[in-house]
Each structure stands twice: as structure tokens, then as C-alpha cells.
């Protein structure tokens, strides 16, 4: 992988531009979307850690449910790469392709970290200034 990521691929990691447009692309929309981003990212790596624990304990259904929920909540943030990674992993889990799970999980974990970093950077640049301090 190259350190130089083209701007177009940045959108596939995290992009709330479409969400902002649907909501009116104004100050009110920015406030609402900022809250959505904060709320979606608030659990941090916890869902990934929960899925990892479920996989270690061979609770495949629980792992799949956790990943499905993560995909649903983070997918609204334009995290297309994470959605693709999660779908592949969820499918491998559902079909019990146990040899595919570790590399797919590593990809999902990496993509989720990128989403969290990108979301935090977006919040730092765009969060409404109305008395809120941007602290991570």
C-alpha cells in the first residue's frame, strides 16, 4: 500500500457529504450530522473487540450480529470500504470458512480504524463552534 492515497479513495473510507446534502447542507444539517458522527463513533474499537472475542469463543452468530450492527451504524457515514470488508467477513463467518476469517478480520479492523480516524479529522474540521470544544 502506498502512503499517498488519492482523494477519491478518501470518500470510500468516510464521507458524510451526501448525508449533509440530503439534510439541507446548512448549519442545522452540520450540527445534526456532527452528532450522528460522534454517536456512531463513540464506541470506538469496542464493537470490533466484541466481535473478536465472539470469534475466539466460537460464537459465530454473535460475531456476525455484532459486525452487522457495526456495518449498519458506520455505513451511514459513507464508509464504503468498511461495508465491503464487513460483508466479506460476515459471509465467511456465516459459511464457516474459518481459514478466511483471520485475514478478513484484519482488513475489517484496519478499515474501521481508518473510519474512526477520518471521522475524528472531519469533526475537528467541521464541528459546529456553538460552545462545543472538539476533544477526542
From TrEMBL:
Residues 26-122 form the HPt domain. GO terms for molecular function: protein kinase activity. Coiled coil: none annotated. Keywords: Phosphoprotein, Two-component regulatory system. GO terms for biological process: phosphorelay signal transduction system. Signal peptide: none annotated. The keyword Phosphoprotein applies. This is Hpt domain-containing protein.
Amino acid at each position: 500500500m502506498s502512503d499517498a492515497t488519492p482523494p477519491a479513495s478518501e470518500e470510500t473510507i468516510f464521507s458524510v457529504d451526501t448525508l449533509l446534502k440530503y439534510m439541507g447542507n446548512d448549519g442545522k444539517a452540520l450540527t445534526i450530522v456532527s452528532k450522528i458522527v460522534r454517536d456512531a463513533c463513540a464506541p470506538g474499537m469496542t464493537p470490533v473487540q466484541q466481535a473478536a472475542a465472539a470469534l475466539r469463543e466460537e460464537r459465530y452468530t454473535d460475531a456476525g450480529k455484532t459486525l452487522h450492527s457495526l456495518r449498519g451504524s458506520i455505513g451511514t457515514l459513507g464508509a464504503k470500504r468498511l461495508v465491503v470488508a464487513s460483508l466479506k467477513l460476515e459471509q465467511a463467518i456465516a459459511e464457516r470458512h474459518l481459514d478466511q476469517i483471520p485475514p478478513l478480520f484484519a482488513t475489517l479492523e484496519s478499515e474501521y480504524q481508518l473510519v474512526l480516524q477520518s471521522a475524528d479529522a472531519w469533526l475537528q474540521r467541521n464541528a459546529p463552534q456553538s460552545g462545543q470544544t472538539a476533544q477526542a
